[in-house]
Amino acid sequence: MPIFLREPEAPAGGPDGKGWNRLSLNAHGGTGHQCALRPRRWGALLESQDTRRARWGGFGRCINRGRCDGCPVLDAWRGQCTVIPINAPRVLVRVELFFAPDTRFTGPTGYRLWVTTGPEDRNFRDRQPWTWEDAARVRGWNLGPAYHDEYGEGFWLERTAHVPAQGCIITTRARDSFTRHAFRVARCRVALLHCTAECRHDAQLLNAISHACPGPEGANEERVAVPWALARKVTVPPAENIRFYIDVRPLSVKITAVDSARSECARLTLSGSGWSAERVQAAVDALRAHLAAVSSPSR
Ligand SMILES: [Zn+2]
Ligand SMILES: [Zn+2]
Ligand SMILES: [Zn+2]
User: Fold this and answer.
1) Residues 63 and 172 in one domain
2) Which spans in 93-246 are helix H?
3) Residues 105, 72: one domain?
4) How many CB atoms are closer than 10 A to CB 276?
5) How far is the CA of 60 from the centre of ligand 1 (A)?
6) What is the rounded CA–CA span in Å between residue 131 and residue 39?
7) Of 132, 284, 282, whose CA–CA distance to 292 is shortest?
8) ipTM higher than 0.85?
9) Which of 109, 89, 102 minimizes the C-alpha distance to 30?
10) 10 Å Cβ neighbour count for 104?
11) Are residues 289 and 177 in the same domain?
């Protein structure tokens, strides 16, 4: 994977010719060779996800004189993954520039990236700021659109089923005749997935269910918050050859997945007051998407 970005030669016309301005280059990450794992703006962060697309210009300088083997930036990228400390489907990262005295015209001397729950989040400074290099080491979240408002610039990150929900602990126990996956939030079990025989799903199903799980305030032994109108057996549209049955009870919601041979392949039990109709729907959608994916004939 190429990460060394050689500084282009100055075009004819010289450094002071039209369109080639050292000051403006400085303002965008400095001059010299650059490193594709050190983005300094949204477009460069996008390129850093697949460095074959990376072009010199939007990155910080190479710190290891082009010797990428043994470069601490590359080592960190390989070895450390940046965890997003928020349980939400998307987060807004705000980019704060800071300037040393007398460097107004040579560009920022540093950046702090703040993870926020969104534009209204004003308490983000309680969290640890990131560097741009930290942002390049986020896994399992997609880079969303760039963002700006009166406070400054930033970008969105969008969670995928490659990562579990922050704060949800998933444990798996395999027995001879079944496998159980427990989902715990604040030490309280909020969901239990019982797979008959062997699992017919990928690891992403577990992550997707964890995204549906309530936060700590809804993790308890109280009644589920599903309206009474739904408190009867409801069928969900089948996916591939799997049918789903929902059974709402006062203290739990059970979703049963039954295959074409009429045998139960999975059963998901949800408990706690945080389970609203929307969250139950999200859990069912996760089951439909991921069970069907594995059980389809083209697997
Ligand atoms: Zn490097
Ligand atoms: Zn380098
Ligand atoms: Zn399973």
Assistant:
1) no
2) 132-136, 203-212
3) no
4) 15
5) 9
6) 10
7) 284
8) no
9) 109
10) 10
11) yes
Q: Is the pLDDT at 29 greater than 50, yes or no? A: no
Distance (angstroms) between ligand 3 centre and the Cα of 175 equals 11
Predicted confidence at residue 103, as pLDDT, reads: 60
Into how many domains does the chain fold? 3
Compute the distance from residue 130 Cα to the ligand 1 centre, in Å: 18
Quote the CA–CA distance of 238 and 225 in Å, as a whole number. Answer: 25
Which residue from 142, 154, 166, 149 is spatially nearest to 113, judged by alpha carbons?
Answer: 154
Q: Has residue 61 been placed in a domain? A: yes
Domain that holds residue 97: 90-159
* In contact, 164 and 170? CB cutoff 8 Å: yes
Confidence bin at 287 (pLDDT 50/70/90): very high
Same domain as 184, residue 147: no
Ligand nearest to the CA of 209: 3
CB 75 within 8 A of CB 137: no
Which of 129, 159, 189 is the C-terminal boundary of a domain?
Answer: 159
Listed residues 127, 159, 191: the one ending a domain: 159
In the reported structure, the alpha carbon of residue 7 is separated from the centroid of ligand 2 by a whole-number distance in angstroms of 12
Provide mean pLDDT across the span 272-278.
93
Tell me, in angstroms, the distance from the centre of ligand 2 to residue 67's CA. 6
- Asked if residue 201 has pLDDT above 60, the reply is yes
Q: Residues of 169-184 as b/e, b for ≥16 C-beta within 10 angstroms?
A: ebeeeeeeeebebebb
Ligand 3 center–CA 260 separation, angstroms: 18
Half-sphere exposure for 120 (CA within 13 Å, toward CB)? 0
| Residue that wins the pLDDT comparison between 9 and 134 | 134
Is residue 250, in this structure, part of any structural domain at all?
A: yes
178 and 279 together in one domain: yes
Q: Which ligand is nearest to the CA of 67?
A: 2
Is 84 part of any domain? no
State the distance from the centre of ligand 1 to the C-alpha of 167, rounded, in angstroms: 33
Q: What is the mean pLDDT of residues 92-120?
A: 86
Beta-carbon contacts of residue 100 (< 8 Å; ≥ 6 apart): 109
* Residue 251 token pair: 């203290």
